Amino acid sequence: MGLTVTLPAKEQAELGSKFVTIACCGDSHTRGGYPQELQKALQRAESSTTWKVLDFGACGATASKTPRAYAKSPVFKQALAIQADVLTLLLGTNDAHKVFWSESDFVENMTNLVKQIQENGAARGRAPSIFLGVPPPLYHKGHFMASLLRQNVINRELPRIIPQLAEELGVGCFDAFSALGGPKLQMPNSMSPDGVHLNQVGRRLLAEKLAEQVLIHQGLLSPEEAPDSPMSCSSESTMEHSPPARRRRMTCNHSVTRSRAVRQTC
């Protein structure tokens, strides 16, 4: 992970290349996960654009106010500082821990995160386009880690809450839950043995589907050109600042507890 240097508009025009910086924020689904694959997918799809995808994931991060609240993490401050064009926010898996879950707290703190991003962008004169992500499904396989998370929250509540929240806040949304198997858990080959984290197959699939959303948002792919995909949340109209499409087409960790002690692993 590092900071990107954005050239002045005049120099960009002289080079004939469009620059797009994407800040990927979230928990272990992000940290060391899909951002690297997203960089590759975008460059394959639109090589005339210079893409800079940065990983601002934090192991064990939550939206809610826990010891691992993302709002307090150093990487979130770094993400705000780079003034990205697009910012993805994929949280919720750790919030579904049996010790932590509260729908009202989750909604309140996700809202606060979005507002902080928007206010920071407005103050700097460059607000990013924000996409909230619905986390991947939880596949219970008898693993200790998976057993500590509320499967009904991840597989039923978050897919309801996050698209609705995105629409209310006027931001974009991407649906990793449906793209990676949905409520019927139809893609076990995309998951690691713990049933929580994505494996290489899952990370690549998430990245490819998210790349389609980014390309549509940037006007580099029309919705009609995109392959049939469940990646869009139900309210596609929530995407902010989408320019008209103009051309071609082309995925650290969770809190666990023993007795009353809560620990994080990565």
UniProtKB/TrEMBL annotation:
Superkingdom as given in the UniProt entry: Eukaryota
Annotated ranges, domain SGNH hydrolase-type esterase: 24-204
Protein name: SGNH hydrolase-type esterase domain-containing protein
UniProt biased composition (Polar residues): 252-266
Region (Disordered): 221-266
Pfam families given in the database record: Lipase_GDSL_2 (PF13472)
